[in-house]
Amino acid sequence: MKPTNNPAPSSALDSTIGAAYDLLKKGRIDEADQLCRGLLALTPNIRTAVLASAIAEARPDLPRALEIVNAAIEHHGEKAELLLKQAQVLMQLRRRVEGVAAARRAAEICGPDARVLQGIAKVHVERNEPAEAKPLLQRARELLPTDPAILYDSAVSHFYLNEMDEAAALLERVLTLAPGNGFALYVRSQLRTQTAAQNNVEYLRNTLMRPHIRRQDAISAYFALSKELEDIGEYQESFAALSEGNRVKRGTLAYDVQDDLDAMQKVMARYSREALAQAAPGEPAAGPIFIVGMPRTGTTLVERILGSHADVVSLGELVDFPAEMTALAERVYDSTGSTEPDLLRASLQMDFAELGRNYLRAVQPLAGGRKHFVDKLPFNFRYCGQIHQALPNAKIVHLTRDPLDTCYAVFKTLFINAYHYSYQLDELAQFYVAYRQTMAHWHSVLPGVIYDLSYEDLVADPPAQCRRLLEWCGLPWQDDVLDFHRSRAASTTASAAQVRQPIYTSSVKKWRNFERQLQPVVRRLAEAGLVDADGNPLPWPMRG
What we know:
This protein has helices at residues 10-25, 29-42, 46-58, 62-76, 80-92, 96-109, 114-126, 130-143, 148-160, 164-177, 182-190, 201-208, 215-231, 235-250, 257-270, 273-278, 299-307, 320-336, 343-347, 352-363, 384-390, 403-411, 425-445, 455-460, 462-473, 519-527; strands at residues 288-292, 312-314, 372-375, 395-400, 450-454. It is mainly α. It has a domain at 258-527: Rossmann fold (3-Layer(aba) Sandwich). It has a five-stranded parallel beta sheet with strand order 2-3-1-4-5. The radius of gyration is 25 Å and the shape is globular. Residues 1-8 have low confidence and may be disordered.
């Protein structure tokens, strides 16, 4: 790509590039591509190369996106904007070590460009490295001290690092500059437990009464209001705000819970005891510890406990196992020439040892040389059979919790692009029943493979439960695991504030504060034999 002798005027270029990105946000990829092609013919510069890569990214054609940005780097040399885009694409390709290296190099050579610095910081946050993001965002703030987005990202990096006072001060600045910013309102509500004397309830109510409030801001404000009202004991009003926030959020999603239910049923049908016995043996390497279950059941707590052990590193919520499994199953499916759309049937013909090796090759570079690492992606519960078949010496720890406490905790959490079943009580109940059926299936076909760890048992007797957990994982006892809350390691989950505290029992039976409102869930779970008519949990059918 050679620069033209007659580049487009800067204002026209800015306008056209902006229009192309607006089209991308609206999903109008072909129209954005048409604008980009015109720019490349007229002004093939760094910004148009980044745009072309972003368009390929949106298709999604990640190899092509990387090819475009690599060619631009070869032509223009190392430029921070190009290296940032390279890092972003590499992260999506799960080539994280290369992606972080590109981000660090971009930071080294970046000039006074606040947006590029902000983008580099986001790469580090994505890699659970908010400590590396923090100084970059400080540089960005010095360049644009009144930019709400940069101030917000800075606040979040402090929040993940348990620097709550700093986060609070930055969020107040965001709300001064952008009153009613929903993301800031939501994170502010999570910083501490509110009291009757000190809370933001009236501010949140007034925010929700503003005319023309943006839908996303309203959703976040409802969830924040519900949390703060619950903190101060106003349970009826809390649930009313929560229900409205969930209603609005659910209206933004194109989701059918039946798709998830059907998928789980198919896994149980295909992955029978007989099918697993006939499948190819896996990779015998030991080291991975998978934490699975429903969200908000203590998975992050157990991740922090294990991560406090000197021989263990936590790698966060990795998508690598399902991604590697899907890629290999698709390859097997394509090789059969079948026209029957049943990827699960094909997956039973996979080389499971290859799947195990592919997974380890993808994630072990992140472990820093430690043999044991934690992969805490809750919905991996759907793949326990495949995990064990691929990595028979990996450990699987399944968190259990009171069914109604679980459902309420999920319902009151505002997730980011995940767990779409969580915003409507009937869908949540249906999903929970299917989850329990799936785990009962895995216990049946893989007896003794999965370790059930009760959240209630853990918070009631941490030393005893931690000893059993470490024993299951093949780890020697270390007292440090009981001081997990003192760890300076970042936490980039919805539980970031809670895991900084010593183990507490106040979340047990919290659903009873909303017993009347949760009756539809109680009835559905009782029909499935998971709770009695009063909502008390019935025994799990099998234990690991």
